[in-house]
Design a protein that fits this description.
It is a single chain. The chain is an alpha+beta fold. The chain contains twelve helices and 33 strands. It has four domains: 120 residues, Nucleic acid-binding proteins (OB fold (Dihydrolipoamide Acetyltransferase, E2P), Beta Barrel); 110 residues, Nucleic acid-binding proteins (OB fold (Dihydrolipoamide Acetyltransferase, E2P), Beta Barrel); 121 residues, Nucleic acid-binding proteins (OB fold (Dihydrolipoamide Acetyltransferase, E2P)), CATH 2.40.50.140; 168 residues, Nucleic acid-binding proteins (OB fold (Dihydrolipoamide Acetyltransferase, E2P), Beta Barrel), CATH 2.40.50. α1 packs across α2 and α10 crosses α11. It starts with 10 loop residues before the first helix and ends in a 5-residue tail after the last helix. This is Replication protein A subunit.
């Protein structure tokens, strides 16, 4: 097969130098992938990012994969020298370098992986004109824009049903629905004080966060209402998203300015109500701690409102716990807070959908609705209708397993078919192509004693490292507050072994408490009191056999890659349950004494 003839030669030159012509002449360019490289993780976490090099035979250019395209890498479809069809893209210029943002990509598998075709040269082009809102027919979210003519009675020059504009665009307008609006928050610093609020905006192509500060709080807070649809027009700052402050899968965010134009939209028919990416309740066992998920289920139980006092601020908070079930025959506890807790009036057996809940491993698995999350009662969506039909027909009389039950079992909250020996973990190359989860029964043989804990922020849910200011206070840059002392949290490297091999595991605070039998604060106090007592505590933790629930995942360290094994949870071995499990295995293999 003459693969070279299938490549869209000249496409890169047209995309950067003649975007309108490229969209007409090369609507779906076919290119060769010459290189794939994962990028180092950014501070604050976020999704994995990949840089690739694409060639049209004449030229090659550096490209960034948008996170929604990562699956082609995870599925091992996008490989070196494969041929790809680019369905959605954005051309950009960053510090004089031409970058192609890949928003949609298909691997043409029948073309295989031929050798590099031709001798492509590094592409050079003029930066895209600042006046262009989109390039190659692509908008901010990666969905083709639908151009609509301006309404005569309005002063806005153009309306776009697509998502937010590129950062270098001068004039643009989006039409979006407010799906969530925060309370007004204030801050006080030596340099001054201020206030802010934020909204999540949704259109048919995606979601983006927008924030208003100080004067813009007075201008826009009362105007923007949850559920309302608005036209929002520049000037409005477009910048890279601060991932530590948002749970939206968007690389950008907006900041309202003094002259930002916001108008209520009368026609709301073409703007979706809310967009969910549901995880079923059984699958929560495979979701790592502190991840953010959307969940839907039938409301089984509703607790009364209770009050807790924050250990860091001393402020009281209202909370309410709910129990959800779904057709996987699992249940989960969901905690809601503040006004959501006090105003909650849904009846048991209602279907409730949550967008933006944080996963905790307390008691196995539980969820907490984030301040940026939303809750919908009996939403008019297919998943809700399906669950309602299931519950009315059979679910009402079903019994449900909880992740709390799984946590108490000897298999460390994992499934039985994922039990592995250390040798199996290595020989099966777990974590090499995608993240894998497995259960391990192993004995601790060594714990690194240097840097076993770090000073963390005391604000609930933060856990970021704080800095000793030298004046008796510890400062958290994320929360912009100072504390009289930190809360120490474990971050440990532990070597374990079984009868087959040995393995280094990374452990965080919850697991460290199980291993050491005390909090990191208590262990740090021992070190201050007597180094010998601290050494004795580590010695007592050695030679203990535990159940470990682990995740294997490829990490990048500088120019090298290696698999990292992280412990998601740990528990004592229930030898009675373990004996019963082994007896059942013997029975299954037909072995008799």
């Amino acid at each position: 097969m003459d693969v070279e003839s299938k490549i869209t030669k000249g496409a890169l030159d047209a995309i950067f130098n003649d975007p309108e012509g490229a969209n007409a002449k090369f609507p779906v360019p076919v290119l060769q992938c010459l290189q794939i490289k994962p990028l180092a993780a950014q501070a604050g976490g976020g999704a994995e990012r990949y840089r690739i090099v694409l060639s049209d035979v004449n030229n090659y250019v550096q490209c960034m994969l948008a996170t929604q395209v990562n699956h082609v890498v995870h599925d091992n479809k996008l490989v070196r020298n494969c041929i790809v069809r680019i369905t959605q893209y954005q051309a950009n210029s960053v510090k004089g370098k031409n970058i192609l943002i890949i928003l949609g990509l298909e691997v043409i598998e029948q073309f295989g992986t031929p050798d590099k075709i031709g001798e492509p040269q590094a592409f050079e082009a003029k930066p895209p004109a600042a006046a262009n809102t989109t390039i190659g027919g692509q908008n901010f979210y990666g969905v083709k824009q639908e151009e609509t003519k301006p309404k005569p009675q309005q002063s806005i020059p153009s309306r776009s049903a697509g998502g937010a504009p590129l950062p270098y665009a001068h004039k643009w307008t989006i039409k979006a629905r407010v799906t969530q609006k925060s309370d007004i928050r204030t801050w006080h610093k030596p340099s001054g004080e201020g206030k802010l609020f934020s909204v999540n905006l949704l259109d048919e192509s995606g979601e983006i966060k927008a924030t208003g500060f100080n004067e813009q709080v007075d201008q826009y807070y009362d105007l923007l209402q949850e559920g309302g649809v608005y036209y929002i027009s520049s000037p409005c700052k477009v910048q890279l998203a601060k991932k530590q402050f948002t749970n939206l899968p968007n690389d950008y965010e907006l900041t309202f300015e003094r002259d930002t134009v916001i108008e209520k939209a009368e026609d709301q028919s073409n703007v979706p109500q809310v967009r969910f990416n549901f995880c079923n309740i059984q699958e929560l066992q495979e979701v790592e701690k502190d991840a953010t998920v959307d969940i839907i289920g039938v409301l089984k139980d509703v607790d009364e409102v209770s009050q807790i006092v924050s250990k860091s601020t001393g402020k009281p908070y209202e909370k309410r716990e709910l129990t959800l079930v779904d057709d996987t025959n699992y249940s989960v506890r969901v905690t809601i807070w503040g006004k959501s807790a006090t105003n909650f009036d849904a009846k048991p057996e209602s279907v409730v959908a949550f967008k933006g809940t944080k996963v905790s491993d307390f008691g196995g698995r539980s969820l907490s609705l984030l301040s940026s999350g939303t809750m919908s009662i009996d939403p008019d969506i297919p998943d809700a209708h399906r669950l309602k039909g299931w519950y009315d027909s059979s679910g009402r009389n079903d019994t449900f397993s909880s992740h709390n039950n799984m946590a108490s079992m000897g298999n460390a909250t994992g499934r039985k078919d994922q039990d592995k020996s250390i040798l199996q973990v290595k020989e099966e190359n777990l974590g090499m192509e995608q993240q894998d989860y497995f259960n391990l029964k192993a004995t601790i043989v060594y714990i690194k004693q240097d840097n076993f804990a770090y000073p963390a922020c005391m604000n609930e849910g933060c856990n970021k490292k704080v800095t000793d200011m030298g004046d008796g206070t510890w400062r958290c840059e994320k929360c912009d507050v100072s504390h009289p002392k930190p809360e120490y949290r474990y971050i440990m490297s532990v070597n374990v072994c079984d009868h087959t091999n040995q393995l280094w595991l990374s452990c965080f605070d919850d697991v460290g408490r199980v291993i050491m039998g005390m909090t990191a604060d208590q262990l740090m106090a021992l070190r201050e009191e007597d180094d010998a007592k601290m050494a004795q505590a580590f010695e007592e933790a050695n030679c203990r056999k535990l159940n470990f629930r682990c995740r294997a995942k490829m990490d990048t360290f500088g120019e090298s890659q290696r698999v990292r094994y992280q412990v998601m949870s740990a528990s004592q071995i229930d030898y009675k349950a373990e004996g019963a499990r082994l007896a059942e295995l013997i029975k299954q293999f037909g072995i008799s004494s």
